[in-house]
Amino acid sequence: MGGLLVNALSLSHFRSHRGLQLEFDGRPVAISGANGAGKTNILEAVSLLSPGRGLRGASSEEFIRRPEAIGWKISAEVTGAGGYHQLETWAEPASPRQVRLDGKAATQLALGQVMRVLWLVPTMDRLWTEGAEGRRRFLDRMALSFFPDHAEAALSYEKAMRQRNRLFRDEVTDPHWYGALEARMSETGAILAANRTAVLQRLTQAQEGAVSAFPRAELTLSFPEGDGGADLAQALAASRRRDMAAGRALIGPHRADLEAIYSARGVPVALCSTGEQKALLISLILANARALAADTGFAPILLLDEVAAHLDAGRRAALYDEICALGAQALMTGTDASLFDSLGDRAQTLIVANENGQSKVNQ
Q1: pTM of the model
Q2: In CATH, what is the architecture of 129-271?
Q3: Confidence of residue 358 (pLDDT cuts 50, 70, 90)
Q4: Considering only CA atoms, which of 235, 236, 239, 245 is closest in space to residue 168?
Q5: Where in the chain are the domains?
Q6: Which CATH class is domain 1-125+300-363?
Q7: What percent of the chain has pLDDT over 90?
Q8: Are 342 and 308 in contact (CB under 8 A)?
Q9: What pLDDT digit, counting tens, does each position of 204-217 carry?
């Protein structure tokens, strides 16, 4: 089984990289360098070859290299679904991000049809101890990897919900306005719920069928106010008076939370040690990758930022073995090149340094 590949990557005025051209040979990529050198910026650029705001959730303006502030561009040659493709995405100052696929203007949704990209970054280490919003984003990112139209449904749902909230603020009482928006929330909310449920099922299957050094997690969705049942539109209509008092919708998929139990111990992941939580996150990313490979025939691109820093030597070696067995092209960062020693010649190495505010890469 093969994997999706980034064969070549070019950056222009992106973050700390004034200009960068890289070629990859399909092996995992070990990127080392000091903090602030620009390692994560390379991973972020690859994450933008898929739909959305990338692994930092940043705006287009934040990608612009300073002080030039002339806009940024990412170009890549990839082997994706359907074979070889040329991808480009860019933005000028104060302008929206644009996408071109094989020389033709395209949408971000089209990127999801070509590339499947998964990532794990240090900020996700707090996933199980902070608010539900981050866990929903984590789950929806996994859903997007399986269902490229998931983002479109989420945007449509959120737009209808914001419009309904605006009616509350404007003290509109006409039920026809509410009814139309609640019908749209119900329609798109059903898509979100179905996709999320399917993802949890696929992750469970992928964990059960795997021989892995990383622990399993039992995942469920919960709703603090109930999910509205089979007919969300009817439930929203019934909750209209209560929602108006609150100024927002109190039921629906936007209120869902992802709960996890450490299977081996039977305790909530939020009560586990930091090391256990990190291992479970890695396990879920690997399960997501295995499930995608089984469904599509291609392992996704993996972006693992500082993933090895808090793993012991045995766990690091096990992680690298699983990545290689999966056939995935993984881009991994670390401050110390020795963190990747157990990969040996199975990996391509890059060294990143910052010189006078500009990232330089030795390939």
Answers
A1: 0.94
A2: Up-down Bundle (1.20)
A3: confident
A4: 245
A5: 1-125+300-363, 129-271
A6: alpha beta
A7: 87
A8: no
A9: 999 998 889 999 99
